[in-house]
Write a structure and sequence with these properties.
The structure holds two protein chains of two kinds. Chain A is built from 16 helices and two strands. Chain A is mainly alpha-helical. In chain A, α3 packs across α15 and α14 (252-261) runs antiparallel to α15. Chain A starts with a helix and ends with a helix. Chain B has helices at 2-36, 74-85, 99-107, 127-130, 137-140, 174-179, 189-202, 234-241, 254-267, 280-289, 300-306, 346-361, 365-368, 405-413, 422-433, 438-455; strands spanning 59-65, 89-95, 115-118, 135-136, 153-154, 157-158, 161-162, 165-167, 169-173, 206-208, 292-295, 315-319, 323-324, 327-334, 337-340, 391-393. In chain B, strands 8, 13, 14 and 16 form a four-stranded mixed β-sheet that branches. Chain B has a four-stranded mixed β-sheet with strand order 10-11-9-12. Classes of the chains: A mainly alpha, B alpha+beta.
C-alpha cells in the first residue's frame, strides 16, 4: 500500500496522471462529438442507406458514383470563386491591418467596426444579404445614388454570370475583419526599433511593409491562406441560405446536403464528404510544400533561397578557385 | 495531503463523466425494453369513447409539431379544452421550424417524444417499428373517410391519422382577375396563361407569384400530377410503372402539362421579376391587397391569405386549370398525420391516443386551417365552396408488395417529387435563363426516372 502511494505520488507518475486528468475532458468531448461521428460516417459511406430503414453493404460503389456523377465535381469548380474571393479578402485584411497598426485616429473604432461582421452568425449574414441583394433594395438604392440606372443593374442573385460573385462577396465581408485582427496581432509583435532604423535609412511606407512587416508575419499569412483556401472548398452557409443553391450556386456541400436530405442517399453523401476531405488534405499538403519552397516556414529558410545561396556560394568558390590556380 | 484530495476530486469528476456518458447509452436500452410491452398494447382509436374511457390516466406527453405559429395560442386552448375531459394528462408542444428535415433524424433516435406528425420519409413497412397501431383501416373507416387513411396504412393497419386533408388548387385574388377582364375561371392551360397575360397587361399585379426563394413552396407543383390525369391510380401505378411518364401527351393533360404551365408563365414574364429574392411572409398581404394575381398552393393557404389583410373577401380558390375530357379534378390528400411513438410507456400511449382522437374529432383543427376534416360528414371548408362540379380525387393505395416503390424510385431518381420540388425548380431556372426547353427537361426526367425504375425492378 505504502509502495502504491509512493509510486502514485512520485513525480514521474504524477506528471502522467496530471496530463491524463486534464486532457480527459477535451479528449472525451473530441471523441464523442468528432471522432465517433466521423467513424460512423466512414462506415455509412460503404452502405446504400437512408436515415431510417435497412442498409445494404455496397463496398466502394458510392465512391465510384461520386467520381462518375457530373454534378459533384462541377460543383467543386465553384470553389474557384471563393478562392479568388479569399485572396481579395486577405489582401484587404493585410492592407487595413498595416494601416491600423500604425497610429491612426480612432483606430480602435475602425478595428471594432471591421471585426463586427465576424461576430454575426452565418445564417443571419445570409438573411441580411438576401435583402441586401433584393431588386430595388439596399445595394440597388446605393448604386442609384451613385448614378446607376436600375434598368442597367443586374439581378444580383438571378444572373448566373454574377450571382456566384455576389454570394462569395458575403464571405469576404464576414471574414475580412477576423483576418485583419490576426494580422494586426502579428504586426504588433514586430520590434518598433526596426521601423526607426528603417526610417533613418530612408525607407518609405511600402518598403517598410515589403522588407520588415511582410517577412515578419509571413507565417501567419500562410496560415490564413491555407485556412481560406480549404474553407473555400467546403463553402456551405452562404449559398445554402442566400440562394438555396439554385441558379447555379450549389457548391459541393449544398449538393451533398440535397442528396442526403432530399433524396435520402446518405451513403453517397457520406462518400462525397470523405472524398472532399481527401481533396482538402491534398490541397493543404500542396500548399505547405509550395510555401516551404518559396517563403520558408517559421525560422526555416525557404528551400528556394537556400538553393540559390548554395549555388551562389558554389559559383563563388569555383570562381575563387579559378583565380588561385 | 491536500494535493491528494484534489487529485481524488479530479479522478471522481472524470469518473462521473464516464458514468454519465455510459448513462446515455443505457437509456437507449431502456427504450428497447418498453418496446417489449408494446406487444401487449392492443388498444385502438375506435375503442376509445372520448370523455368516458381512461379519464383517470396520468401521463406527460411531448408533441412534436410543424405548426410553430400556433403553439402559444390555438394549441394552448386545445390543451385546456382537452384537460376538461382528461385532467391528469399534460401535453407539452415542441415546435420544429425545419420540420420535414429534422424530424427524420429525430425519429431515428427513438427518443423523440410521444406524438409527432409522421414525415413522408418513413417507408410503409417501417411504420410499425416507429409508430403505434391506431386501428384497422376497415374499423376506422366506419367513422373516418377510409380513403384518406391510405397514406400511412400498411397491410390494413393504420399508423397515422390525418390532422386535416388538403385539396389542391390555386389560391387567387378574385378582384384582380375580374379587373383584368377575366370573368370565367380558366379551365385549361391555354385559358389560364391567357388570363395571366391579361393581368400582366393590366399592370397592377404580378399575375403568378411562385415564392421560389422559400423553396418548399415550389413543392406544391408536384401535388397536381394525379389531378392532371384524372386517374386515381396514377401516383402509385401510372407514374411508378408507366413508361416515360413525363412525355408531352399533346392534349394538355399529364405531368408535362402541369410543369409546362409554370414554364410558359415564367418564360412569358408572367411571374415575379426576381424569383431568388421572393418573400413568403410578405406574399400573403400582397395577394390580399391585390398585388398578386394567384399562387399555386394547397387549400390550406386559402385561410392564411384571406386573414393576411383587410380584403379577405377577394381571396378565392380555384381548381387547377387542367381538364381531362372536359372534366376538372382536384386531388385531395392528407396533410401531416398524427403518429404515436412505440417506445412510449403504456399510459403515455393511451393518453396520446385519447388526445389524437380528440384532435381529429373534436378540436376543429382541420376547419380552422382551411382543410377538410377526415371525419365522415363534417362540412366542407370555405375554400372549396366554389369547386362545384369538380371531382375530388383521392390517390388509390399502392398494390400490396409495392408500398415502397414510389418512394424508392423517387429517391433513386433524385427528382424529389412531393419531397423537394426538384422538377418545378429546374423548370423555373430553365425558363428564366432560357437554357433548356420543356422537351429537353422532360427528356432528362424521363431518363432519370427510367433508370430508377430499372434499378428498382420495374420493367
Amino acid at each position: 500500500m505504502r509502495n502504491f502511494i509512493k509510486w502514485i505520488t512520485s513525480a514521474k507518475v504524477n506528471k502522467v496522471l496530471c496530463i491524463i486528468t486534464f486532457m480527459f475532458v477535451p479528449l472525451a468531448l473530441l471523441t464523442v462529438f468528432t471522432y465517433i461521428p466521423f467513424g460512423k460516417m466512414v462506415g455509412f459511406s460503404f452502405y446504400d442507406m437512408k436515415y431510417i430503414g435497412d442498409k445494404e453493404f455496397v463496398g466502394m460503389q458510392n465512391y465510384a458514383e461520386v467520381f462518375s456523377r457530373d454534378d459533384c465535381f462541377k460543383a467543386l469548380k465553384l470553389s474557384l470563386y471563393y478562392i479568388v474571393a479569399s485572396f481579395v479578402q486577405l489582401g484587404l485584411a493585410l492592407y487595413f491591418a498595416t494601416l491600423l497598426s500604425f497610429k491612426t485616429k480612432v483606430g480602435g473604432l475602425f478595428k471594432g467596426l471591421m471585426f463586427f461582421p465576424y461576430l454575426v452568425c452565418g445564417i443571419a449574414v445570409g438573411f441580411i444579404f438576401k435583402f441586401f441583394y433584393t431588386r430595388g433594395f439596399v445595394l440597388d438604392t446605393v448604386l442609384q445614388w451613385c448614378g446607376f440606372n436600375l434598368d442597367n443593374l443586374p439581378y444580383w442573385l438571378k444572373d448566373t454570370s454574377i450571382n456566384n460573385i455576389s454570394v462569395a462577396a458575403t464571405s469576404v465581408w464576414r471574414y475580412m475583419g477576423q483576418n485583419m485582427v490576426l494580422f494586426i496581432g502579428a504586426i504588433m509583435s514586430v520590434d518598433a526599433e526596426m521601423y526607426e532604423a528603417a526610417a533613418i535609412d530612408g525607407a518609405g511606407g511600402w518598403q517598410k511593409f515589403r522588407y520588415i512587416i511582410f517577412p515578419s508575419i509571413s507565417t501567419i499569412i500562410v496560415l490564413n491562406l491555407i485556412l481560406a483556401i480549404t474553407g473555400s472548398l467546403s463553402v456551405f452557409e452562404p449559398p445554402y441560405v442566400i440562394t438555396g443553391g439554385n441558379f447555379g450556386t450549389g457548391t459541393y456541400f449544398v449538393i451533398m446536403d440535397r442528396l442526403a436530405h432530399s433524396s435520402q442517399k446518405v451513403g453517397l453523401a457520406s462518400a462525397m464528404a470523405i472524398v472532399l476531405l481527401i481533396i482538402i488534405l491534398i490541397a493543404t499538403l500542396l500548399q505547405k510544400l509550395f510555401f516551404r519552397y518559396f517563403i520558408g516556414e517559421g525560422d526555416q529558410e525557404a528551400i528556394r533561397a537556400v538553393r540559390k545561396r548554395k549555388k551562389r556560394e558554389a559559383l563563388a568558390a569555383a570562381g575563387n578557385g579559378g583565380v588561385q590556380s | 495531503m491536500r494535493k491528494n484530495v484534489k487529485r481524488l476530486l479530479a479522478l471522481t469528476l472524470t469518473g462521473a463523466m464516464t458514468l454519465s456518458l455510459a448513462g446515455c447509452g443505457s437509456k437507449d436500452e431502456g427504450g428497447g425494453d418498453s418496446k417489449k410491452d408494446d406487444e401487449e398494447f392492443s388498444l385502438t382509436m375506435d375503442q376509445i369513447k372520448l370523455g368516458e374511457d381512461y379519464t383517470d390516466v396520468k401521463a406527460d406527453l411531448k408533441f412534436l409539431t410543424h405548426k410553430t405559429d400556433v403553439i402559444d395560442t390555438t394549441f394552448k386552448e386545445y390543451i385546456s379544452e382537452f384537460q376538461k375531459l382528461y385532467p391528469n394528462i399534460n401535453i407539452e408542444y415542441e415546435g420544429i421550424t425545419d420540420y420535414s428535415n429534422d424530424i427524420t433524424t429525430r425519429l431515428s433516435t427513438g427518443d423523440w417524444g410521444d406524438i409527432c406528425m409522421i414525415p413522408t420519409t418513413v417507408d410503409k413497412d417501417e411504420l410499425g417499428t416507429y409508430f403505434v397501431k391506431l386501428g384497422d383501416q376497415s374499423k376506422l373507416g366506419e367513422t373516418y373517410v377510409s380513403d384518406w387513411l391510405n397514406n400511412f396504412t400498411y397491410q390494413g393497419t393504420v399508423y397515422g391519422v390525418p390532422s386535416m386533408v388538403n385539396a389542391q388548387g390555386i389560391v387567387y385574388n378574385k378582384k384582380v382577375f375580374e379587373e383584368a377582364g377575366v370573368t370565367e375561371v380558366p379551365k385549361t392551360p391555354e385559358d389560364f396563361l391567357a388570363a395571366l397575360k391579361k393581368i400582366k397587361d393590366n399592370k397592377k399585379a404580378t399575375p403568378l407569384y411562385t415564392n421560389f426563394a422559400a423553396d418548399w413552396t415550389m413543392n406544391a407543383w408536384d401535388a397536381y400530377l394525379s389531378a392532371s390525369t384524372g386517374d386515381a391510380d396514377f401516383m402509385n401505378s401510372g407514374l411508378t410503372k408507366g413508361k416515360e411518364p413525363f412525355t408531352d401527351r399533346g392534349d394538355g393533360t399529364g405531368p408535362f402539362a402541369v410543369y409546362n404551365i409554370l414554364y410558359e408563365a415564367v418564360k412569358q414574364g408572367l411571374t415575379e421579376e426576381d424569383p431568388t429574392t421572393t418573400d413568403w411572409e410578405g406574399s400573403k398581404p400582397m395577394i390580399n391587397k391585390g398585388e398578386i394575381g394567384c399562387m399555386v398552393l394547397g387549400s390550406w393557404a386559402f385561410v392564411q391569405m384571406r386573414d393576411a389583410g383587410d380584403n379577405g373577401d377577394d381571396i378565392a380558390y380555384m381548381p387547377f386549370p387542367i381538364s381531362v375530357n372536359g372534366k376538372q379534378y382536384a386531388s385531395v390528400g392528407p396533410d401531416y398525420c398524427y403518429g404515436i411513438n412505440t417506445n412510449s410507456s403504456k399510459d403515455q400511449k393511451i393518453a396520446a391516443m385519447c388526445y389524437v382522437k380528440w384532435l381529429v374529432e373534436e378540436s376543429g383543427f382541420a376547419g380552422g386551417e382551411g382543410g377538410l376534416s377526415v371525419v365522415q360528414g363534417d362540412a366542407l371548408p370555405d375554400a372549396l365552396a366554389s369547386f362545384g362540379d369538380v371531382e375530388l380525387l383521392v390517390d388509390n393505395p399502392a398494390p400490396e408488395g409495392e408500398e415502397n416503390l414510389f418512394n424508392d424510385i423517387n429517391n433513386d431518381s433524385e427528382l424529389g417529387i412531393n419531397v423537394s420540388g426538384v422538377i418545378p425548380k429546374a423548370v423555373l431556372e430553365a425558363a428564366t435563363q432560357k437554357s433548356a426547353t420543356m422537351e429537353d427537361l422532360s427528356k432528362e426526367w424521363n431518363e432519370k426516372w427510367t433508370t430508377a425504375q430499372q434499378n428498382n425492378g420495374v420493367e
